[in-house]
Design brief:
64 residues; three-stranded antiparallel β-sheet; 2 helices; alpha+beta; globular
Length: 64
């Protein structure tokens, strides 16, 4: 079962990303190290596999 967009956003915020706003259903998040990611979709929508993969990748980038 796919995770929800809100769960991905929660993971990013726990990793230190800050929401920089966005247009419509898009959210731009940025880490203090300069890593950026854009997540699209309403918070209750199912996350697409590519979104889950990208979130995991971006969190790993901040750890190294």
């Amino acid at each position: 079962m796919p995770r929800k967009i809100r769960e991905l956003l929660r993971d990013l915020e726990k990793a230190g990303f800050k929401n920089r706003g966005g247009k419509g259903s898009h959210r731009n998040l940025e880490h203090s190290s300069g890593v950026r990611i854009t997540i699209s979709g309403k918070t209750g929508d199912d996350a697409k596999p590519y979104q889950e993969k990208e979130v995991k990748q971006k969190i790993q980038e901040t750890e190294s």
